[in-house]
Amino acid sequence: MQKLARIPVLNQSVPVAKILLVDDDADDLLFLSSSFSKASPEVRLKQAYSVREAMIYLNRLSDEQLPSLIVIDYNMPLQDGLDFLKILHEQERFRDIKKIVLSTAQSALINKVCVEQGADACFTKPLKLEQYRALAERALEEFINN
């Protein structure tokens, strides 16, 4: 499990979760960002609108700078969430990052394929803001705080 970075704040160490959000929909990114920020003020978020943009970002980071969690939209143009999982799974340095896939069409087959490609969880994409908040809280609890 990847350790959280710590930053000094008034002689204290505050854990910082680094999360990469990958979704082609600006509204979904806004809802996700807002929900994660409200769930944990210490979270550091980066947004990417495509697999290509996400890979450019990740490849610029040192191993110590990599995110603790990547939240991936399953259905994106050109390269989808499954393509992204395959790319991440093929590279050793990305394998320990926790990955959550969000899909509007949840099915056992999507779950199975995503987990086979390295996803830690696959959830139905929220429809309401309250559901985004619940998702963020659950993700932080299950994949960051333990």
UniProtKB/TrEMBL annotation:
**Alphabetized SMART domains for the sequence:** REC (SM00448)
**Which keywords does UniProt give here?**
Phosphoprotein
Q: Which of the residues bear the PTM 4-aspartylphosphate?
A: D73
**Domain (Response regulatory): residue spans on this chain:** 18-140
Tell me a GO biological process for this protein: phosphorelay signal transduction system
Protein's name according to its UniProt entry = Response regulator
Please give the organism.
Paraflavisolibacter caeni
Cited Pfam families = Response_reg
